[in-house]
TrEMBL record:
Domain of life: Bacteria
Keywords per UniProt: Cell inner membrane, Cell membrane, Membrane, Transmembrane, Transmembrane helix, Transport
GO MF annotation list: transmembrane transporter activity
Role summary: Part of the tripartite ATP-independent periplasmic (TRAP) transport system.
Protein localization: Cell inner membrane
Subunit text: The complex comprises the extracytoplasmic solute receptor protein and the two transmembrane proteins.
Biological processes annotated in GO: C4-dicarboxylate transport
Name under which the protein is recorded: TRAP transporter small permease protein
Membrane-spanning parts: 12-32, 53-72, 84-107, 128-150
Residues covered by the Tripartite ATP-independent periplasmic transporters DctQ component domain: 23-148
Membrane topology note: Multi-pass membrane protein
Main location, first listed in the record: membrane
């Protein structure tokens, strides 16, 4: 089971890296075209907007699986030690529920966008697939949140972190 999770993680990392690389290449080409040739890439704003959403939502399951979301521990001081385990279970359940609701809302929005043929402004790129990708990402994040609540964060032991080296 764990090897499947690691394969999914590596796949998501690869997809995110490819989206980011494509966005950087597009931005570079657009700037070069705009500054040197005087001809920007038509619709680059639309494409960049879509790619930014793809990068952010491809990264969401990775951040969730690593347990790397921003956390505030103000309630930890108010909750006594005996109740801390329950507090963590409640927090984990809330994260899973919120991510599942967001996934459901993106799915509904994607279905609506498909029904009304919602498109981007300049290139008229259909938006429904983007919303479906965002829904899938949030659903995968909800599953990752559930998994780390049961087993702990998915941390790669081969990763090096500069902040830990200081």
């Amino acid at each position: 089971m764990l090897s499947v999770a690691w394969k999914i993680r590596r796949g998501v990392e690869t997809v995110m890296a490819l989206f980011l690389l494509a966005m950087v290449a597009l931005t570079f080409a657009d700037v070069i075209g705009r500054r040197l040739i005087g001809k920007p890439i038509y619709g680059s704003n639309d494409i960049t907007e879509h790619m930014m959403a793809l990068v952010v939502f491809a990264g969401l399951p990775l951040v969730t699986a690593a347990g790397a979301h921003l956390t505030i521990d103000i309630m930890d001081k108010l909750v006594g030690k005996p109740w801390m385990a329950w507090w963590r279970v409640l927090s984990a359940a809330l994260v899973v529920a919120v991510l599942a609701v967001i996934a459901w809302l993106f799915m509904r929005h994607g279905l609506n966008a498909s029904r009304i043929s919602e498109v981007s402004q300049a290139l008229r790129v259909p938006r429904a697939p983007l919303y479906f990708f965002m829904a899938a990402s949030c659903a995968l994040s909800a599953l990752a949140a559930l998994a780390i609540a049961l087993t702990g964060p998915m941390v790669d032991p081969t990763d090096t972190h500069e902040e830990e080296a200081l």
